[in-house]
Specification:
Layout lengths: L6 H9 L6 H21 L5 H9 L3 H17 L11 H13 L4 H48 L11 H30 L3
Helix pairs in contact: 2-3, 2-4, 3-5, 4-5, 4-7, 5-6, 6-7
């Protein structure tokens, strides 16, 4: 009768020929540590000086791996702001890039100065557009209320949620506005990823 093998024995037989690549393990750990630190910097738990200390403690190979991970994470954090506080994230990104590319500090300063200005323009423009659209919605609702009062003889109060079609148009207008700025954001990401 044949011997029944345990799951552990089967697993050990299947993995007996597997070898761990220490270089690959070191690369993954380095990139994981880099992304963790970058995330902490983006959330203001850590500062750029922590990144600089971490960066300077690495050998050239680790720095290359860390640079890949940092660029990936930093460029993914370049997004359209929703609030003025979101603009602080740009400073963190720029400071981290300054450490990676010390010879490009002046170029990075100029780039992020422009980006900050455009993002502030975006926030101001979106706020103004939202206000204008909501004023138009309010006027539309007042006209509908007056029409309904004429028809029914009773005063009716409508809210924007009572007219989903109208809100859909508002959201489309805001989305169109966002799309114009998203293209610029993609260009900034490309510039960051293209740094050497």
């Amino acid at each position: 009768m044949s011997k029944i093998k345990s799951a552990l024995e089967l697993a050990l037989e299947k993995t007996a020929d597997l070898k761990v690549d220490p270089v690959k393990v070191k690369k993954q750990q380095c990139q994981k540590d880099t992304k963790r630190l970058m995330s902490q910097i983006m959330s203001a738990e850590k500062e750029a000086k922590d990144w600089e200390t971490f960066w300077k403690s690495m050998d050239k190979q680790d720095q290359q791996w860390a640079k890949e991970a940092a660029l990936e994470l930093l460029s993914s954090n370049v997004t359209l702001p929703r609030f003025n506080d979101d603009l602080k994230r740009l400073t963190s990104i720029k400071d981290a890039l300054d450490i990676l590319f010390p010879k490009r500090k002046k170029d990075l300063e100029e780039l992020f100065k422009q980006v900050s200005g455009v993002y502030q323009q975006y926030l101001d423009g979106r706020e103004q557009m939202n206000k204008n659209l909501m004023d138009q919605v309010e006027q539309q609702l007042q006209r509908k209320e007056a029409m309904m009062e004429q028809q029914t003889g009773r005063r009716v109060k409508l809210s924007p949620q009572d007219d989903p079609e109208l809100m859909k148009l508002v959201n489309q207008q805001l989305q169109s506005f966002d799309d114009q700025y998203k293209e610029m954001t993609n260009q900034i990401k490309e510039q960051i990823n293209g740094l050497n």
